[in-house]
Amino acid sequence: QVQLVESGGGLVQAGGSLRLSCAASGRNVYAMAWFRQAPGKEREFVAEIVWSRGTTSYADSVKGRFTISADNAKNTMYLQMNDLTPEDAAVYSCAAGLGGRYPSRYAWWGQGTQVTVSA
């Protein structure tokens, strides 16, 4: 089992920045990712990191603005979000599992943290 706890969401003005954290405990996992879901929309892949290699991938919509990283010593994954727009507003959830861009590839999920961006 893997337990994931997100933190760092909140309200920010457009153009601002937030950093999300996801603390993991339990068994080792291959990859972790951030997904987001806005009201009335499907869950959307944001970014992924392969834990052992540190390799990353991003959704086109966030590339160049968001940075995913991991601190192995703290078993914590981060998502640095810069130049936020109202379109980035959503509940952001971290996930752990096999990697990739599909939610079905991830067996463990955090509870989610709300990101609100005002225009």
Apparent shape: globular
Number of strands: 11
Q: Compute the gyration radius: what is it?
A: 13 Å
In terms of per-residue confidence, which ranges show pLDDT below 50 for 5 or more consecutive residues? Answer: none
H/E topology pattern = EEEEEEEEEEE
Structural class: mainly beta
Q: How many helices does DSSP assign?
A: 0
| Percentage beta strand | over 45%
| Relative helix content | under 10%
Mean of all residue-level pLDDT scores: 96
Question: What kind of sheet is the major sheet?
Answer: 7 strands, mixed
Distance between the termini: 40 Å
What kind of oligomer do you see?
A: single chain
Summarize this, please?
It is built from no helices and eleven strands. It is mainly β and 119 residues long.
Notes on the structure:
The chain is mostly beta strands. 0% of the residues lie in helices and 55% in strands. It contains no helices and eleven strands. Strands 2, 4, 5, 6, 9, 10 and 11 form a seven-stranded mixed β-sheet that branches. It has a four-stranded antiparallel β-sheet with strand order 1-3-8-7, with no helix packed on it. It is globular. It starts with a strand and ends with a strand.
Q: Topology, pairings included?
A:
Layout: E1 2-7, E2 10-13, E3 18-26, E4 31-37, E5 44-50, E6 56-58, E7 66-71, E8 76-81, E9 90-97, E10 106-109, E11 113-118
